Amino acid sequence: MAEPILQVKNLKKYFPLKRGFLAGLRGEPERYVHAVDGVSFDIYKQQVFALVGESGCGKSTTGRLIVKLLEPTDGKIYLEGQDVTTITTKEELLAYKRKVQIIFQDPFASLNPRFRIFDVLEEPLLIHGIGETRAEREELIYKALEMVKVTPPEEYVSRFPHQLSGGQRQRVAIARALILDPEFVVADEPVSMLDVSIRAEILELMKELKERMGVTYLYITHDMSTARYFADWMAVMYLGRIVEMGPAKRVIDNPLHPYTRALLAAVPEPKPERRNVIKELPIKGEVPSAVNIPPGCRFHPRCIYAQKGLCDVKQPELKEYEHNHFAECHLVGKF
Amino acid sequence: MTTNALEVKNLKMYYFTSRGPVKAVDDISFTLKRGEVLGLAGESGCGKSSLGFTLLGMPTPPGKIIGGSIKVDGREIVGLPEDVLRKEIRWEKISMIFQGAMNAMNPVYTVGYQMIEPLIYHKGMDQDEALERAQKYLELVGLDPEIVYRYPHELSGGMKQRVIIATALLMEPTVVIADEPTTALDVIVQAQIINLMKRLKKELNLSMIFITHDLSILAEISDKIAIMYAGKIVELGPSEKVYYEPAHPYTQKLLAAIPRLHEDVDRLEFIPGQPPNLLNPPKGCRFNPRCPYAMQICKEQEPELKEVDKDHYAACWLL
Amino acid sequence: MRWVDFKDSVRRFWEDFKHQKAGITGLILLILLVVLAIGAPYMTSPDVPVKWQTGVAWITNPKNAPPSWENYFTSQTRAVQAEYTITNMHVQTIKNGTYTIYKLSLTYNMKYDVPPADIVVMGLHSNATNPKQVPQVQMALVRPPEKGVKDNRLNLISQITLPNNNAIQVAHLDQTRNHVLYWLYLNGVLKIPNVPPSMITPDNINMFVMTNTTLYQMVAAMDSMRVMFGRLTDSNGNPLPIEKVISTPQSLKGTYGLVITITVPSNVKVDFTNFKVAFVGRTYGLLGTDQYGRPIALGILWGTRVALAIGLAVAITSVLIGILIGVTSAYLGGWADEAIQRFTEFMMTLPVLPMLILLSLYFGGRVNLTQLVFFLVIFGWMGTSKVARSMALQIKEQTYVEAARALGASTGRVVFKHIVPQLLPYAFASIALSVPGAILSEAGLSFLGLTSQNLITWGQMLNTAHQNGATINGYWWQVIPPGLAISFVGLVFVLLGVSLDTVLNPRLKRA
Ligand SMILES: Nc1ncnc2c1ncn2[C@@H]1O[C@H](COP(=O)(O)OP(=O)(O)OP(=O)(O)O)[C@@H](O)[C@H]1O
Ligand SMILES: Nc1ncnc2c1ncn2[C@@H]1O[C@H](COP(=O)(O)OP(=O)(O)OP(=O)(O)O)[C@@H](O)[C@H]1O
Ligand code: SF4
Ligand code: SF4
Ligand SMILES: [Mg+2]
Ligand SMILES: [Mg+2]
Questions:
Q1: Distance from C-alpha of C303 to C-alpha of C287, rounded to nearest angstrom
Q2: C409 at A interface, C-beta within 8 A
Q3: Where are the domains of chain C?
Q4: How many Cβ atoms are within 10 Å of A280's Cβ, its own excluded?
Q5: CA of C400 to the centre of ligand 2 (A)
Q6: Sequence spans of domains, chain A
Q7: Mutate which of A57, A196, A237 to disrupt the B interface (most B C-beta within 10 Å)?
């Protein structure tokens, strides 16, 4: 297989908890939210890598680290083999941001309400000094709108975001990310705020653009079904760590980790004949706080297979069990 | 023969806004038997929550019920004065789990206080009795009864939603309307809540209207499904029929838009365009601007609900 | 931002703004205010602020007179101010060797039920060095003919000196009163029995009047002006009873003449350029006068200057400073933010009025305009800064700001393209709201007599009215116009602020 376009190695991000002034004076230790706690993965060109997991498991933080909206506490990120965590100069940073873009979850919140669509799309061009004249930029903007099928562009450029539907807003957000012709795009739950009927449309669009523009996506979602549909690879996150990773279909059809199994069991199925069956959910309890990470396997308080003396003391490692299919569990295959 | 838990006939509720009436609930009819769950699905803004509020006899202003009938346990509630509704119907006969209610809990009161406040003020129950009842239902939804003394921020999302469900059950209503009860929750919590509702349905013989925009959740629990589009029910029938033999083009499209967990789909279908503005919905079939099969007649005349199979209705000129 | 983009956004702004009725109204009114403020010296005279403070400048004006248009609403019409300069008079110069005599005559159309309150002669300038050479003035009123009245010429002043910078106020002269009494006597209205007429002169008539107590009381309360412009006889030419003539005079309407004779030694030169004769009205101009005779309308007009200057200067400066401090604080974060916030709160807890008083006293008890603006800004930026900080903090966390940063936007771009524009409507709204506040603060300080008196401000006008007991005496024109002026300016800025907010904040815009 080709060289990966993006590599993440042992990435960590700890957010310090706000500590009271007095607590600080008393010398209480600083505490941290372990939002991302040692994550590694490779993403190959023109592939879609899905990051799935429950709310708060650190998916968005990982995405933000990659686009350098956050600086990692530890670990490395390589783009095309180059370490980007050590970027210091403004020029390098700008050059990086031109190659790596992000699409956010809420298409309304991600567009400045006082910017017209034209201004929204002009912003990246102005920042990166693309297009000498307004006319040149206008051409690029029209092209971008056509690309995301917000047509005819002249009808939309002077509108404000609130004058567009949710789907159209998300298309504009996609156009903004793609107008710089990036190589890598982090799509942070790009469809989860949209209606089901529109979701499909946006996913189709992103798929088409992937082919046309050769972009590679990190697709962040909590929805296993769209991940299977859209992604080639998939990683399941739990409490800041990847617990299972592999080809999307493999992970879904043959989950190795108990947490993945629980997640999959919980996905609603459109099978009305099973409506009176109470579903077995192979998991117990609730997600612990990312401040106090359980020792050993961080999933053990919720794992129905947990073994005393093993799972609660020894942290498992991410190991390859099938070809390209990794899991982080002591007991893979033993339940 | 037992009476139906809920009978709705030709119900119409419009919002009388300064720019004209918004036809959010437009000529809706259905029945709900005891112990039955009706799933109500449709795109955002099609009037699902509006229908829920209307069934409670309290459309949000400037909404007004302008016609039709709602019979709860055989009793007509359209036209009942507000104080009768409040004393005898709401929460007693029909209650609602409001969309987003779990995030609207007041952070300065204990959970218990928030649960029993309406019992004390509206039903004149004394505090101990109300608290005891609250604890009983908290236990029923799988929570520790001691939770009554906790504050909302001490609870997780799933726990809060359980509290909201327990609150809706406090007066032992015949019908519970659950408006997007799982939307903001994580998959696992969502599955747990759905399990809880299935259990309640069985144990309490509860009738439920389950509102969501996610068709796959509906399949998990509904006996009957109603598909709403632009203020109208366009298809209504037993779950299996609606899922496996959808009659209305809109339903077909909606179902084809859901990615399946264990199936490979090459292309997802989607419905181009967006739902109409309910201030002036399109003439004829309201779906005609987005429908791939639209014909001349669809633009001129509105189709009525037709029985396409036993208990399976759809409103489309194709049928 | 480049010039074309700027022009373009201004054009787009105007496209939106011109549909705002309230905004356009506000804009027109603001332009009007600015025109008034700038035009005041040209419309009136540039020395008004100096004259405002000196009582003599307003000697020809009635005191506490209501506006002239009140006549339309009252059953009795009251005299309106009328003033004559030398150009309105007929001048006859007679030289008889040792003296030069100027005979000035003018005509006055008295068409009111209540005649003028006074006749004032002033502004005569001579180069006399010795008190004996000071011009001597005589004055007579020529009344319209009235049936039964023998002599329609009434002497008002037989002789009085008029040094430079002095004025003659006829109504208050004993001489005039005596002449009026004598004239009443001559026309058979005032009867002095048992005294041969040859014994009675204008100079001693008062003595005879004093012998009759009821008559004396009546005369003491007499308004000579009303009598000299009043009827003496009934329609048949029979003398009216004395009580009627003195106590309830009925005006004799018609054309009057006033003859002023000025006698100076021939070596003395007199200069008439500033010479002025005023028939002091019972009503005055558009908005009446205050207790010093200063025209309220003039004060309102000039007050616009100070109001706009103080209001805009204070509002704009304090809002800009507030936003600057707030945004900086939000952006710096950490201990810098903490320090700025504590300082802001400290400033907020200072009691403003006492601090202003202390500052004013420290700076000499009477602060000028610049100092006043400075003080009001010192105590005016905190509210805006608090709000600006919390808005900036909120905006900073918005996803679209994150999106911009992900695109590579610099801090400057984020602040000036995303944060500041969001604050603009708020800034305009708070400028609009601070303007009346600043004007009121000025009024408060003026009320306490702490502002420089060479300013004409609505606050000081209210203060004057208050000292004059305007509300108790019913001098509404001294209170309502400055009050309305303050609210009017407030309204103008609110209209503007609200529409700017609507235009700049698309969520409020009607689709
Ligand atoms: N800026 C921040 N400061 C402090 N804590 C943060 C910050 N951003 C995220 N966190 C915490 O880090 C953890 C991971 O957050 P993150 O947003 O990455 O989760 P997520 O997987 O994207 O969840 P969701 O599905 O809800 O978007 C959470 O516990 C969150 O509270
Ligand atoms: N109080 C109101 N006044 C006027 N119009 C309203 C009001 N409440 C809702 N509407 C309109 O009525 C229509 C139906 O709204 P409703 O909230 O019932 O939709 P919904 O199907 O529940 O949507 P969602 O899935 O977003 O909750 C929408 O077009 C909405 O804009
Ligand atoms: S390591 Fe143990 S606790 Fe962790 S997932 Fe595997 S079996 Fe469960
Ligand atoms: S009636 Fe016509 S437009 Fe409406 S759904 Fe049927 S075919 Fe489509
Ligand atoms: Mg997230
Ligand atoms: Mg709703």
A1: 14
A2: yes
A3: 20-52+296-510, 69-280
A4: 10
A5: 26
A6: 4-268+276-327
A7: A196
> Distance from the CA of A284 to the center of ligand 3, in angstroms?
13
A316 near C CB under 8 A:
no
| Among the listed residues B40, B44, B42, the one whose alpha carbon sits nearest the alpha carbon of residue B55 | B40
Please give the radius of gyration of chain A, using alpha carbons only, rounded to the nearest integer: 21
Evaluate whether the domain defined by A4-268+276-327 bears CATH number 3.40.50.300.
yes
Give the three-state DSSP class for C452. coil
The neighbour count for residue C427, using CB atoms within 10 Å, is 25
pLDDT in tens, B21-34: 899 999 999 999 99
Q: Which two tokens stand for residue C191?
A: 């009867």
Contact residues, chain C, for A127 at CB < 8 Å: 404, 407-410, 413
CA distances from B31 to B3, B236, C170, C336, C469 (A): 10, 10, 100, 65, 78
pTM of the model as a whole:
0.77
Between the alpha carbon of residue C229 and those of residues A187, C142, C150, C153, C260, the distances in Å are: 95, 10, 16, 12, 17
Residues of B whose CB is below 8 A from A289? none
Cα–Cα dist C429/B32, whole Å:
54
Report the C-alpha gap between C421 and C209 in whole angstroms.
83
d(CA C76, CA C144): 21
Contact C506 A160 (CB under 8 A): yes
Does A104 contact chain C (CB < 8 Å)?
A: yes
User: CB of B223 within 8 A of CB of A275?
Assistant: yes
- Smallest Cα–Cα separation from B220: which of A267, A268, A196, A281? A268
Closest-CA residue of B relative to A283 is B188
Give the pLDDT of residue A30: 80
Answer yes or no: are the C-beta atoms of A61 and A230 closer than 8 Å: no
What does the alpha-carbon distance between residue A121 and residue A147 come to, in Å, rounded to a whole number? 13
Q: Going by C-beta distance under 8 Å and a sequence separation of 6 or more, which residues neighbour residue A252?
A: A224, A227, A228, A234, A264, B261, B262
Amino acid at C353: L
Residue in C85, C149, B261, C126 with CA at minimum distance from that of residue A226:
B261
Radius of gyration for chain C, computed over Cα atoms and rounded to the nearest angstrom: 33
Question: How is B61-101 classified by DSSP, letter by letter?
Answer: TTEEEEEEEEEETTEE-TT--HHHIIIIIBTTTEEEE-TTG
For every residue of C227-250, which 3-state class applies, written as one string? Answer: HHCECCECCCCCECCHHHHHHCCC
**SS3 of C40, please?**
helix
- Please give the distance, rounded to the nearest whole angstrom, from the Cα atom of residue A56 to the centre of ligand 1: 5
Q: Is C454 helix (H, G, I), strand (E, B) or coil?
A: coil
Spell out, as residue ranges, where chain C has pLDDT lower than 70: 1-6, 8, 504-511
Placement of tokens 């003396």 in the chain: A309
- The CA–CA distances, whole Å, from B239 to A272, B5, B205, B242 equal 6, 19, 19, 5
User: Is the CB of residue C413 less than 8 Å away from at least one CB of chain A?
Assistant: yes
Amino acid (one-letter) located at C422: Q
Name every residue whose Cβ is closer than 8 Å to that of residue C145 and which is 6 or more positions away in sequence: C152
pLDDT digits 0-9 by tens, A150-206: 888 888 998 888 888 888 999 999 999 999 999 999 999 998 888 888 888 899 999
Q: What is the pLDDT of residue C128?
A: 84
Phi/psi class of residue A184: alpha, beta or left (left: φ > 0; alpha: ψ in -120 to 50)? beta
What's the fold here for domain C20-52+296-510?
A: MetI-like fold (1.10.3720)
Q: At what angle do helices C476-504 and C420-447 cross, to 10 degrees?
A: 170
Residue position matching structure tokens 């080809």:
A247
pLDDT by residue (tens digit) across A278-331?
A: 888 899 888 888 888 999 999 999 999 999 999 999 999 999 999 999 999 999
Contact A247, A324 (CB under 8 A): yes
